[in-house]
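Students often ask why inverse folding is considered easier than folding. One informal answer: many sequences map to the same fold, so there is more than one right answer. In these notes we will look at a single instance of the problem. The structure comes first.
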């Protein structure tokens, strides 16, 4: 049972609590109340389905930010082996908001790059809440260029509210570092698979977001700006974030319609935070599928298709 519930999850949490209490009571009193437990479990599944099949964009944003949602290091542990983290950009520092390293998915060698948030206040401060500095993006590009030399595919996990907007980051060239990555990722002659695992906010997401295949988890979001930031600009009121989430078209379904992503990866009923292993299994299956597909494409053709994929975005016909 997840005690860290969002507002719309409260009916579910209450039912889960009742089921747990009945099971404990049955065990202590040696009573057979399995029929009552079964009835409540059936009701729980129905309530879950009713809630999670009808989520608003804002509710999906809340799930994407859930504190118990799996992060990059969790997925590395569950999906990969032989992970070796690589540190530093060789210019300024090692940014702990971006994890970079080498690993294997089954027997396949890959480079893994992903945003990393913290589980508590101390770790969040160390990870800067998943908001990378310029040195993080420069580290990522250093690793990507190195891996391209050895023909190693690149996997990127996006989970950030946005790049860090502080004075120091701006002084060290935040915008230039992201722009350099955008340019550089288009030139890498190896398969690149991008998965938005939580928040996909603004340039902070795009800094590692250029890929041959871009996927979004079912309850993740990918947006030009956070709903709160959009609300503050349009309505001068951050409380309008739910309305902003609706107009930003940031959910997987809307992104598919717009041609921004290639696939929505299914999450367990209730969200990735309710079953880490099942979510990791789903992501791994999609990554392996696309690795097999992309490795068969010649490098020059791969670059051409990547270029065309992104050039198509933002082209609309008016009726």
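Output (designed amino acids):
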């Amino acid at each position: 049972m997840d005690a860290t519930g969002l507002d719309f999850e409260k009916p579910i949490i209450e039912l889960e609590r009742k089921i747990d209490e009945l099971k404990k009571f049955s065990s202590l009193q040696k009573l057979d109340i399995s029929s009552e437990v079964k009835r409540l479990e059936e009701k729980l599944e129905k309530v879950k389905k009713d809630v999670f099949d009808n989520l608003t964009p804002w509710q999906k944003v809340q799930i994407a930010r859930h504190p118990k949602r799996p992060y990059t290091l969790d997925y590395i542990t569950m999906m990969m082996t032989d992970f070796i983290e690589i540190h530093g950009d060789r210019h300024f520092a090692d940014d702990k908001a971006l994890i970079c390293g080498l690993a294997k998915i089954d027997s396949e060698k890959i480079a893994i790059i992903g945003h990393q948030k913290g589980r508590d206040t101390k770790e969040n401060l160390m990870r800067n809440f998943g908001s990378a500095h310029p040195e993080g993006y420069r580290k990522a590009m250093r690793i990507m260029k190195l891996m391209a030399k050895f023909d190693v595919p690149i996997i990127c996990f996006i989970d950030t509210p946005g790049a860090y907007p502080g004075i120091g980051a701006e002084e060290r060239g935040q915008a230039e570092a992201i722009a350099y990555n955008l340019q550089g990722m288009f030139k890498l002659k190896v398969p690149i698979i991008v998965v938005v695992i939580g928040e996909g906010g603004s340039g902070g997401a795009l800094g590692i977001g250029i890929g041959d295949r871009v996927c979004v988890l079912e309850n993740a979001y990918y947006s030009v700006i956070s709903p709160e930031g959009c609300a503050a600009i349009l309505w001068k009121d951050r409380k309008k974030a739910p309305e902003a989430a609706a107009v930003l078209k940031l959910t997987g379904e809307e992104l598919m319609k717009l041609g921004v992503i290639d696939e929505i990866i299914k999450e367990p009923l209730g969200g990735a935070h309710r079953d880490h292993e099942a979510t990791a299994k789903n992501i791994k299956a999609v990554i392996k599928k696309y690795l097999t597909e992309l490795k068969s494409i010649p490098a020059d053709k791969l670059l051409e298709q990547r270029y065309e994929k992104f050039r198509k975005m933002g082209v609309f016909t008016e009726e």
